[in-house]
Specification:
Layout (H helix, E strand, L loop, with lengths): L8 H15 L4 H11 L5 H9 L24 H10 L45 H16 L3 E6 L5 E14 L4 E7 L4 E5 L3 E6 L7 E3 L5 E3 L13 E9 L4 H8 L5 E7 L2 E9 L3 H9 L5 E5 L1 H18 L1
Antiparallel strand pairs: 1-2, 1-5, 2-3, 3-4, 6-7, 8-10, 8-11, 9-10
Helix pairs in contact: 1-2
Amino acid sequence: MIFSELYSAYYNAVAAILKAAIDHPLQGEELREIVRQHAFGESILQVEPALREGRWQLLRPDGTTPVRKEPSMPLTLLQKRWLKAISLDPRIRLFQEEPLDLPGLSQAEPLFTPKDYVIFDRYLDGDAYEDETYQANFRLLVDAIHCQYPVSIEMESGKGRRVHTVLLPRYLEYSEKDDKFRLVGSGRRSRVTVNLGRIRKCEKYRKVYGAFSTKPTGEADLQREMPFQAEAAPHTENVTFELTDQRNALERVLLHFAHLEKRAEELGGNRYRVTIDYDREDETEILIRILSFGPMVKVVAPRHFVELIKERLRSQRSWER
């Protein structure tokens, strides 16, 4: 909302109109075309009458303007303080290599700092956003998603084993609870999910691989229809549980597992069945998360996950004695 009034489409449209009117008398059709380019189709119903009828006192009847200099919209102090505040977030460096450099920003007092708010219900082992290798990997993957070329990835598994894979990145997802980014890409048989924090090396794959070939310039070129292959792709498992929607349990479960692919089915009587897909290496973490919902959640499949639940509960009971 800080930028909505000063930098909205209406302000940009009127600024473009005044810029044109300073250069030459502005006719009706040209004015309407500028509004269509900078605002919305229906905006002409408000903008043109306000200018033509003199309510805004910016255009004369002959299409000229009393404004002598091209309009500019400098940042307000509030906007500078807000930009300074978000620039303190370490994740901002993932999207730009250099800090924000705007006139007066360095002298502005941040509107808030990370010390001004407390985050709870979040794990403390979030990704290392300030690590230069992590930043470089992130930017390369964003470019690969936009340009659609395969990447070669060396990563460390949850057990400390080095794994190599080549995949076609599709999108990135962020888990607020884990404070981690994950890459979702196409593997040989199915979707592949990789934690960015586990990636040790990431680069463009320049050889002919599956359906794709990367040119020396780095541009991906579709060669032929072949199944896309991946090496040592992480294995995906799923768990199905039923829950009773008490105390917003369904909403909390869906939010808790927002970063994972899932399916929910209504069973009636305020009961639901939810299936969640997860990386096999994260099974213990998923187990602990499900147990945190207590008696409102009951795991029904697969059988081995049910046994893990029972074993965990027996272990906890033995410690209570």
